[in-house]
Amino acid sequence: MPGVLEQLGRIWTILPDARLVGGAVRDLLRGQAVADIDLACAEAPDAVMAKLKAAGMKVVPTGLAHGTVTAVIDRRPFEITTLRRDEETDGRHATVAWTQDWREDAARRDFTINAMSCDSAGVVHDYFGGQADLAAGRVRFVGDARLRITEDALRILRFFRFQARYGSGRPDPQAIDAITALAALIDRLSVERIWSELRRILTGPEVTRTLWQMHDCGVLAHVLPEGSSIPRLERLLACGAPDAPVLRLAALVAGDERAVARRLKLSRAEGGALARTRGEPVPCPGLDGPDILRLLADHDPRDLIWRAWLRQADALGRPDAGWEGLRDQLVRTPPPVFPLNGGDVMNAGCPPGAMVGQVLGQVRQWWLEKGCAPDHAACITRLRAVLAEGVARAT
Q1: pLDDT tens digits, one per residue of 317-326
Q2: Which Pfam families match (predicted)?
Q3: N or C end: fewer C-beta atoms under 10 angstroms in the chain?
């Protein structure tokens, strides 16, 4: 990251005591690419902004209430947060005060592997054994697990997400005991935060093992009170299905998917995709070319493909060449487009009004029955015949 290091160097020139914090330190220690680079410093937000602006740097006050400003260098954002301590928490929000104590700031973080900081000299400051936990594959809360959870119940779901990605072996017993005792606190969270974490769990590593752990702790029942079926999701994954979160949610949900979409406040696109994925018709191996065309004329290819994944999970629960061939055919076949529109119907002599749609529907049904093969000229011929039949019935 030569460009990033140069940009960090500019920040450290202005704020020499600032440190990298959180996931950036964790991922650097693991030799992984760093997505977001966050820093912390002991100076108050106003002082930080003043120093950065005096050095000619663009600064955005992105979260002053929580001590965060964003320095923008060559369009790359760097969040810089003043060291904090929690004055008051209610399980969702915290009232914070500034501090100059790095350990005090680290103590308010969720897990030991996220509580480390790294200064400009490359020295890692680790107050709670995060490096050892990272090396051993342990995900532990900083200090008292129950206290960390009561400060922010979202940490329950974050624990499982981090355990799947960084943990190995059995989860930390103290964490599991605390989560089991406090699982009902999830009900106090906003559903947007719940879905944000769940979708990451669904697309992360060790998906079903993580969900079973959540189930055993009583957590999954609060996340999906409508009901869930981990075995069905296991069968879907065994088939080799892609890691699309809505597809995996469609397999996991055992209750009314529309109720799930409403409660979790899924986006319109996600909620619609969830409902359609669990809808009809479902393509199955053995369909011929005209059958495929008829399906594609009325349904989005992705919806059909995802329905096929779910049906394969229910029918087989393993890879199969026939199902794979079906999905390949759905991908490769261009969706047919009905050649006529309302203007064609009126040009053929049909007066404007409801009859235009009725006639167009009759011709389209004939076109579907013919395997979507008739071209524009053939459909015009059929249109004239339909109109003539209508005139004959009317007289």
Answers
A1: 999 999 999 9
A2: PolyA_pol (PF01743), PolyA_pol_RNAbd (PF12627)
A3: C
